[in-house]
Amino acid sequence: MILWALAAVPMAGALVCLLIPRRQAVLGWIIIGSAIETVLAVIAGVGVYRVGSMDACLGHLALDELSAFHLSLVTGIFLLSSIYARGYFNQEPFDPTRDDRQARKFGALWFSFLGSMVGVLIFNNVGLMWVSMESTTLASAFLICIHADRLSMEAAWKYLIICSAGIVLGLLGTVFIYGASVSAGAAGEEALCWTDLVSHAGQMNPSLVKIGFVLIVVGYGTKIGLAPMHTWLPDAHSQAPTPVSAVFSGVLLNCATYCICRFIPIVAASTGTPDWGRRILLGFGLVSMVVAAVFVLVQRDVKRLLAYSSVEHMGIITVGLGLGPAGYVAALYHTLNHSVCKTLAFFCAGRVGQSYGTRNMESISGSVSACPVWGSGLLAAILLLIGCAPGAIFMSEFMIVRAGIAGGHLAVIAGFLAAVAIVFCGALRPAIHMAFGDTPEPVGALRGESTVMRGCVVAMTAWLILTGMWIPAGLTAVFQRAARLIAGM
Length: 489
Hints:
Elements: H1 2-19, H2 23-51, E1 54-56, E2 61-63, H3 65-90, H4 96-122, H5 126-144, H6 150-183, H7 194-200, H8 206-224, H9 232-239, H10 242-271, H11 274-296, H12 302-322, H13 325-356, H14 367-370, H15 372-385, H16 392-406, H17 410-436, H18 451-469, H19 473-486
Antiparallel strand pairs: 1-2
Helix pairs in contact: 1-2, 1-4, 2-3, 2-4, 3-4, 3-10, 3-13, 3-19, 4-5, 5-6, 5-10, 6-8, 6-9, 7-10, 8-10, 9-10, 9-12, 10-11, 10-12, 10-13, 11-12, 11-17, 12-13, 12-17, 13-15, 13-16, 13-18, 13-19, 15-17, 15-18, 16-18
C-alpha cells in the first residue's frame, strides 16, 4: 500500500492547494505535504533495504534499491525546497488578489511536479516511466514562468520545446527496446516491464538494442542537460524562482539519469560487450564537462554560473556511469553530493540576490559580512562544487578518477581533470569577490527569515564536509546495492 500512498499524496496535495484561499496557507501546506511524502519515501526505502524490492499493481509499480535511493533524495530535496519557498516568497511584495491566486497555482504545479518525478521512480514499466518523465516537463515549464516576464516566458518555451523534442527520441528508443524484447519472446505487458526486460536481455536483438540505447541517451540526455542538448538548462535554471531552480538542478536531472541507468544492464547483456554502451556515456559526459568549463568562464549571473555547474556535474556522473561497475558507486555518491550541494548553492544565491537586488556577480560583494549565513553558505557551496578538499564532491570526483585509471581510461581522465581545473579557476574568482569584496551601502534587509532554514544551511554544509572525510558504512552499502542493479547483478 505504501507505493499507492506515494502516488496519491502529491495528487491530493495539488487538489488541496487549489482549494486553499490564502498564500500563507498554501506555502504551509506544501511543507506538510512534502514532509508526508518524505516520510513515506524513507519508510519505503528502509523496507526495501531490509527486506528487498516491493511491487504493486500487478508489477507495474515497483521499488528496488536503485529507485529507493533516488526517491528518498527527490522527496528530501523537495521538503527542503518547500521550507525555503515560504521565506523566499515572503520576501517579495505582496498583492493579496494576485498573489493568493498565484500561490494556489504554484502549489498545484509544485505537487504535480513532485508526483511526476515520483512516478518516474516507482513505475516498473519503462513506457509509463517515459510518460512520467514527459509529465515533469509539462508541470515544471509553468513553474519557470510563475512570475511571467519576457525572459522567464522565453526560458519556459525553450525548455518546453527542446525537452519535448528530445524526450520524443527517448520514446522512439523505448520502442526499439520493446521490439527487441518481443523478438526475445516477451509478450504483452511484460515486454515493457524492466524486470522482464532484464531477464530477456540476453536473447534480444543487439542491433535493435544499440539503436534504442543511442536514442535513449540522446532523449533522456536532453532532460539531463548533457551537451550539446543542454541549451535549455542555463535559461530555465536562471529564470525560475529559486526553490524551483533548486529542485531542477538537485533532483530533476537525476531522474533523467536514473532512466538511462535502467537501460545500462539491458544493453550490456544483449550486446555481450558492456564497453559499447559505456563508450557512449563517456563521450557525452566528457563533452558536457568541457562545454561547461568553457561557459563557466564568461558568466556574470550567479544562477547561470550554477546552471553551467550542473551541466559539468551531470557530465561527471555520466562519466562515472561510463566507467562500468568501478564507477557506478562513485557516480551514485556524486549524485547525492551534487544534489545536496547544488540545492544549498541555489538557496544561498537566491537569498543573497534578494538582499542585493541583483544576481550580477560583479555587483554582489562582501556578502559574508552583509548577510553572514547566506553569504557564507554561498561561498562554501561554490568551493565544495568546484572540488575543494575536504569536501564530499572532491571525494566522489577522486573515486571516479581512481576508477578511470584502474580501467585504463587515461585519455578520458586527462580530459576530466582538465575540465575540472578550468571550472575551479573560473568559479573561484567570482566566489571570492562575492564573499569578501567591499560591501556596498546599503544592502537590503531580508524579510521572512527562517531559523529552521538557516539551520538547514549549516547542517547541509557540515554534512558535505563530514562525508568528504568519512562515509558512513550504511551509506556505502546503499550505493553498493544500488550499483549492483545498474551492473545487472
